[in-house]
Design a protein that fits this description.
By secondary structure, the protein is α+β, with helices and mostly antiparallel strands. The chain folds into four domains: 174 residues, Orthogonal Bundle (Hypothetical protein af1432); 185 residues, Beta Polymerase, domain 2, CATH 3.30.460; 167 residues, no CATH class; 76 residues, ACT domain (Alpha-Beta Plaits, 2-Layer Sandwich). 49% of the residues lie in helices and 15% in strands. It contains 28 helices and 22 strands. Strands 3, 4, 5, 6, 7 and 8 form a six-stranded mixed beta sheet that branches. Strands 14-18-16-17-15 form a five-stranded mixed beta sheet, sandwiched between helices. Helix 11 packs antiparallel against helix 12 and helix 22 crosses helix 24.
């Protein structure tokens, strides 16, 4: 996604040489509006020192000159947009540096202003804020999506270092969304979709609920204009019908609190159109069935009074069972705190009440921005700040392990889930996780090492599968062993970006280490075929490796080994080049090495320079899924570009076609005498339909000491006979033959054959 709003609302004036149309002539009224707008901004800056206001005015003059001659799509001078963004930031009481950056947030991108120029004029902090808000349009990317993802990553990392970046960005996006009517419909739809998918969830994650709701509403209005208009009319009509009910409930509540001598403020609250639409769609309701459109918010002075107010309400109206939530004792992941209770009014309608203190209300509406509104702070403000900082730190952790921008964006989207479950560690510490999170997500939320070594989990004292979804209130205990490592299958069910990025990072590192070992072994074999030993890592060999890596285009010899192991470079070609370099230094082929055909430092290596396959190679060596070779099969190896060594059977038709197309990437491989694990192969069975057939098949496989890892029964309707395809885990060909003989003896089995491509 774009790192800053695509300012589709402007069409900067450029020279005719640039091929852009001339901008519309500004109206005199628009010019007057510019001056008036900045005058209005100065009224919002009364919380700043006079010296700071002077610096803001300098930034305004600089931005005004930079954007001179640029106009928005509606015809007004472009400077009105930065002024409006700065005004929104001033409502959050951001400091002078942030207001200055808001005024100049488009200067680098649209006006050719450099970061160095901003540093000289306004200082490094302001320049860093502006730079964090600037897209990477000047770089060349292969696709629009890649450009957006890279720009978005840049903005989020700037935000992780300084949260003011995202606050300015959200203000920028909010003003653009408010003034999108002059844009083309296709562009409006794209920007609204991006806002709903990325920026609104970020606002929610940082607790800026007021901004979150408005971004959602504006996105909904542009994405679904007809549905928005229909719901708006329905709510307006319902407001008229229910006015008497709402006024009566409010009057009863105020009178009850007056009698209890508890000072408070009561506000009516109306559900947003987007939340009504979402509820109707998810729960398949009609508008008439959504009965919590209207509610009330009660603001009291102290924490103690929140619970007193709850008691007064429950005495006044009957509460609905199961609809009370205490977000004060257990705050939401973004720091939100309130008591929620749903009561039944005298007219039988369900009405939700939210009870909170003034500071809780500030955090609920402004989230992390409440830090500037309440500089002295309080427990609630500090908690929101801490939770926001935790999420921002998690972005840096994900970035450290994810260098692909699209993958980074995928992880961040996962972490933007608005719903959360609250679970406990055995020591009663509370953790907030996205809805649908599993014990593996919990383990990585505690620490990377805990996640990496997880083997089992207990929830509320009972053993559970690692893919089990956690529920609020669960007590989770993780069981680990030092030798355990992440399972690639975990990626199918983990829900947090942190867990996903940690697992992928571990698997990538593991694959790289294994590919490096394989590449070193292959190059050593190729060198032995030339009659030479592979140079070591002694200082005397450093110059030789430097020459070779410079020729191959790798930074280090480890990178060269990895490329060979992944099939990006061919070991024999690299070996010939290394032989030539060694010959220049006086190294001659050794006749004994040439004829013996063995590694210098590997007594277990096979003769003739073949790669030994025993099943312990990991991700760098894969068994081809087309033929599924097992020990005892005649095999060959294909070095696929970037995918390591793929082992095929000699008879495999897929392998033969690959050989004809790309013969130089094939090499000799051989089974070890004692494989370290069983291997999978596929067999097909024709069985008669009847009661207990699968049980008979499973029993026969078990008697032969094999395992079934997968069963495919196809989609054909049941007939007298059915074809089953089994994936069996066996030791070798002899073991497979024994399994097939045992299956043939089963009365239900008519035919057994090994699957071949």
């Amino acid at each position: 996604m774009s790192a800053r709003a695509p300012n589709a609302l402007r069409e900067p004036a450029q020279s005719a040489a640039a091929g852009r149309r001339a901008p519309p002539k500004p109206l005199p009224a628009a010019a007057d509006a510019t001056a008036a707008s900045f005058a209005a901004l100065t009224h919002k800056l009364d919380y700043l020192e006079p010296a700071d206001i002077k610096r803001v005015r300098e930034a305004y003059r600089f931005a005004d000159e930079a954007h001179l001659g640029q106009f928005r799509a509606g015809g007004e001078p472009y400077i009105t947009h930065p002024i409006a963004v700065a005004g929104l930031c001033a409502e959050w009481k951001l400091d002078a540096q942030a207001i200055m950056a808001a005024l100049m947030h488009d200067a680098m991108e649209d006006c050719g202003v450099t970061k160095i120029e901003l540093i000289e004029r306004f200082g490094a902090p302001v320049a860093d804020l502006v730079d964090g808000l600037t897209k990477l349009d000047k770089l060349q990317f292969s696709t629009r999506e890649e450009s957006q993802a890279e720009s978005f990553r840049k903005m989020l990392l700037a935000m992780a270092r300084d949260v003011r970046v995202i606050l300015i960005k959200l203000a920028d996006r909010l003003h653009n969304m408010r003034t999108m009517d002059a844009m083309l419909a296709a562009k409006r739809t794209r920007i609204a979709g991006e806002t709903l998918e990325i920026y609104a969830p970020i606002a929610h994650r940082l607790g800026l609920n007021q901004t979150y709701r408005e971004l959602q509403e504006l996105s909904f209005q542009h994405l679904r204009p007809w549905r928005h208009a229909a719901l708006s009319k329905a709510v307006l009509k319902a407001r008229g019908y229910r006015r008497d009910i709402v006024e009566r409930i409010q009057h009863d509540v105020e009178r009850a609190f007056m009698q209890s001598k508890l000072p408070l403020q009561v506000f009516g609250r109306e559900k947003t159109l987007f939340s009504i639409y979402t509820k109707m769609r998810e729960k398949h309701l009609t508008f008439a069935q959504v009965n919590d459109i209207f509610g009330f918010r009660i603001v009291v002075a102290t924490l103690h009074e929140c619970y007193m107010a709850l008691g007064v309400l429950h005495q006044l109206f009957k509460p609905l069972p199961g609809r009370f939530k205490d977000y004060i004792a257990i705050p939401k992941a973004n720091g939100y705190q309130s008591l929620h209770t749903t009561l039944v009014s005298p007219l039988g309608t369900a009405v939700e009440f939210q009870i909170r203190t003034e500071q809780m209300h500030a955090v609920a509406e402004k989230g992390i921005a409440a830090h500037w509104l309440y500089k002295s702070g309080g427990a609630q403000v500090q908690e929101a700040q801490r939770l926001g900082a935790m999420w921002l730190q998690s972005l840096i952790d994900i970035q450290d392990e994810t260098h692909d921008a699209n993958e980074f964006l995928e992880h961040v989207k996962i972490d933007l889930f608005p719903d959360a479950v609250y679970v406990f560690t055995p020591m009663s510490k509370i953790l907030a996780l996205p809805r649908g999170a599993t014990p593996v997500d919990f383990a990585y939320a505690i620490h990377t090492d805990v996640g990496d070594h997880t083997v089992a989990a207990k929830v509320n004292g009972e053993p559970v599968a690692l893919r089990t979804e956690l529920r609020s209130g669960d007590v989770v205990e993780i069981i680990g062993t030092p030798g355990a490592r992440p399972n690639p299958a975990w990626l199918n069910f983990v829900r947090t970006g942190r867990a996903r990025s940690k697992i992928r990072h571990y698997l990538k590192n593991m694959e790289q280490e294994e590919s490096q070992d394989l590449g070193e072994k292959m190059l050593a074999q190729a060198m032995r075929a030339e009659g030479l030993h592979l140079p070591g890592s002694e200082p005397t060999d450093a110059a030789l490796w430097q020459q070779l890596t410079r020729w191959s285009g790798n930074k280090t010899r480890e990178d060269l080994f990895t490329d060979i192991g992944l099939g990006r470079k061919i070991a024999t070609i690299v070996a010939k080049r290394l032989t030539r370099l060694m010959a220049e230094r006086g190294n001659k082929p050794d006749a004994l090495t040439l004829t013996m055909g063995r590694y210098a430092a590997d007594d277990d290596a096979p003769a003739q320079g073949l790669v030994l396959i025993d099943g312990s190679e990991g991700a760098s060596v894969q068994m081809a899924p087309c033929c599924r070779p097992i020990p005892g099969d005649a095999i060959v190896g294909y070095l696929g570009r970037g995918e390591g060594l793929v082992v095929h059977t000699v008879e495999c038709s897929v392998g033969k076609r690959l050989f004809q197309r790309d013969s130089e990437h094939w090499m000799g491989v051989e089974w070890a005498e004692q494989p370290s694990r069983p291997f999978e192969t596929a067999v097909t069975l024709l069985v008669t339909n009847g009661k207990g057939v699968l049980a008979q098949v499973a029993q026969a496989v078990s008697e032969a000491e094999a395992d079934i890892t997968h069963i495919d029964m196809g989609n054909d309707p049941a007939a007298e006979t059915t074809e089953l395809q089994l994936l069996l885990s066996v030791r070798d060909r002899l073991h497979l033959a024994d399994v097939m003989r045992t299956l043939k003896r089963s009365p239900a089995v008519l035919r057994v054959a090994r699957v071949k491509p």
